[in-house]
Each structure stands twice: as C-alpha cells, then as structure tokens.
Amino acid sequence: MDRRKGITARGGSIQIDFYLDGRRCRESLKLPPTKANLTYAQGVKASIQHAVAMGKFRYADYFPDSTRAREGGRSSNQTVADALDNFLEGCRRTKEYSTWLGYRGAVEYHLKPQFGKLLLRDVTSAGVKAWLGTLAVSNKRINNVLIPLRAVCGDAFADGVIDRNPVDRIKNLPNRFEEPDPFRPEEISKILAVAPEQARNLFQFAFWTGLRTSELIALEWGDVDWPKNVIRIRRASVGKRIKGPKTKSGERDVKLFPPALEALTGQKPFTFLAGNRVFYNPRTNQPWETGSQILKTAWMPALKRAGVLYRNAYQTRHTYASTLLSAGENPLWVAQQMGHKDWSMIIRRYGRWIPEVDTSAGGKVMAYWAQIGHKSNASA
Questions:
Q1: Cα–Cα distance for residue pair 265/335, rounded to 1 Å
Q2: Each residue of 303-346: pLDDT tens digit?
Q3: CA 234, CA 221: separation in Å to the nearest integer?
Q4: Under a CB-based contact definition with an 8 Å cutoff, are residues 199 and 303 in contact?
Q5: Cα–Cα distance measured from residue 195 to residue 189, given in angstroms and rounded to the nearest whole number
C-alpha cells in the first residue's frame, strides 16, 4: 500500500495517518484491508483533512472509541508563552538561580514579546530567523536567548505536540570573545587618583587580584589569610544572591601582592567592624549588591573624571592577567589565580603577553610592581 497517502494495512484493520494541531495522529478503522475498504479509508482521510482545515474536526465523529476522543480530540493548543512559563518553573528547581535569572530575562524581554501569543505549532523556522536578524545584541546574547526556545520546541517535538522542530536547523552564531584591552599603568594611576577612597580601594584590589565583580562583591574579611597573604575565593554574588563560584576551579586561593594588601588595609577602617563584607557602597553604607551598581555609581564616573578611555570593569581582570604574564609569570599559575580550569583560556586570550614560561610564581611580578612605581603614582 502507498504509505505516502497515509493509508496503511495493519493486520486485519486499516490505519489512517493524519495531522491535527501540528501533531501526528494514527487511528485504525476496524475494517479488513480489502480494495474497497482501502478506497473508503482514503475518503475518510480526505473528510478528516477537510474538517481540520475548516476547524470543525471532532475526534468523536470519526473515532469514538479513541482515547483522544475522550480527551476532547485536540492534541495541544498550548501557546509559546505557556510553554515558556512551564520551562521557567522547571528551571527554578533544577538550575542555579543566576542561570534561571538569565533564562527569565530572555523569556520576558525577548521571546514572549515576539512569540508568546503564538501556538507552538505556528512557530516557523523562517519566522525565528527573521526575528533574529532584528536583534541588536551580541551573538553570545542571541545564543543565550535561544536556549529557552530550543528547550520548549524540542520537548514539544519529542512529545509529538508538533511534527517538526522549527529551531532544529538554526545554528548558534559564532561567539567571538571581547578582545582584552588592559589598562596601562599610567591609566590605573589616573583612575585611582580621582576615585573616592572606598572606590579606590575596590578598584586597586580588582586590578591586582583579577577577581570577577561577583567575587569582589561577595568577598568577606574572613576570606583574608593575613599571615599567608592570600584570599580564599569560595563564593560569588549573582542577582543579589550568594552562590558558589562559577566553576569548581573558581574555588581558589589568590596571592595578595602589595597593592592588593594596601587596598585591604585602606578599606579596614570603613568595613572591618561593620560586618562580614569587605567592600561597601559608600552612598548606602551597605555592601555592594550588583555589578551594575558599581558600574553606574563608581566605575563610570571615575573613568570620566580621570579622562581615561572607557572600558568596562571586566578589563580590570584582563589587566591583572596581562600584568602577570608580561612580568613572565607561569601561565598555568596565572590560570589558577584567575580560576580557570586549565591554561588554554590564558593562551587563547592573553598569548601576546606571554614572553616565556617560568616555574617561579609571584617573584617576577614583584619586580614589575617596583618598576612601574605604583605607590608613588597612586598617592599622586
């Protein structure tokens, strides 16, 4: 029998294959597959297709004994918004809070406004591609925004709610890392010279430890090992919540060079007896809550007053890495200090700052520190 017509002989019955609401349905007529009955089945299928097209199909009219007839006959009228809400609810229990926040942002600000009112079966590859072309965001952000949509469409396809996955052939866009643009010593001196005291302590500490902003916010005085001159990174603050570091390798001990120790000593009078956290927002006299808070109220104003070309605060981390590597420190040790699981990221992003590989850790950067005259410049 020609399967392309959706009529198939199955033992002593005839199976009719059709689509309803984007879902593939297979039902059997309890008729022997004779030539006459097969012709009759083709007529039944044609009638079904017409009823579906006119929006008048009722399962019970054709297959009264089918389970779907008792369920109402429609496979799914779920909207994309409903599917996305279910996805977020599941992620709330299974994902890190920071990951869930990212998904929620993608859903609320991008996916729902564009696709929320559509039924899942009405989402098309062409529609998704056309929409992606209108987004004025980075490739990395686009890839992240697609994650919830991929999840709900993939589940719908696996469950048979839709007969094809509209995002299956939409590939992730190439994600190019932002090129490191570290601050020069004279730029650092200008920034520190104009920054208010607590902000200066924060910036100087960031330049000489390479901590992520989330790690700086969560740093506590109890994490400082003064006798060993190290800080222990065991937590980060994301979305105003404390969590573990981004990766297992993010749990690390970071060596405190003199400028970092100087910043901690300068910060002591402000917060050492106030609570656990090291760095406070001087405007509220409370610990910093978010990176954007630091960016808007401290970082951007300081760079503007200093007359330094603007770069985002993450460049303090790039500055730390390039400084250590330029001084000849072992790239593997630098990777460990920054919380990378291996040194491949260091080679890939900071290769041009690596003059040699040396097994001594920390000595050369001390000499480099003396050469740039940080103390004299910072106090200017």
A1: 26
A2: 999 999 999 999 999 999 989 988 888 888 999 999 887 777 78
A3: 12
A4: no
A5: 10
Number of Cβ atoms within 10 Å of the Cβ of 137: 11
CA–CA gap between residue 113 and residue 317 (Å, rounded): 36
Please give the Cα distance from 235 to 332 (Å, whole number): 22
pLDDT in tens, 340-369: 877 777 877 887 777 644 445 566 677 777
d(CA 7, CA 68): 19
Nearest to 338 by CA among 266, 277, 252: 252
Confidence (pLDDT) at 158: 75
**pTM greater than the 0.70 cutoff:** no
On whether the CB atoms of residues 19 and 51 are closer than 8 A, the answer is: no
pLDDT band at 249 (very low <50, low <70, confident <90, very high): low
3-state secondary structure 169-238: CCCCCCCCCCCCCCCCHHHHHHHHHHCCHHHHHHHHHHHCCCCCHHHHHHCEHHHEECCCCEEEECCEEE
What is the dihedral angle through the alpha carbons of 67, 69, 74, 78, rounded to the nearest 10 degrees?
A: -50
- Burial of 351 (C-beta count, 10 Å sphere; 0-12/13-18/19+): exposed
Residue 279 has pLDDT above 60, yes or no: yes
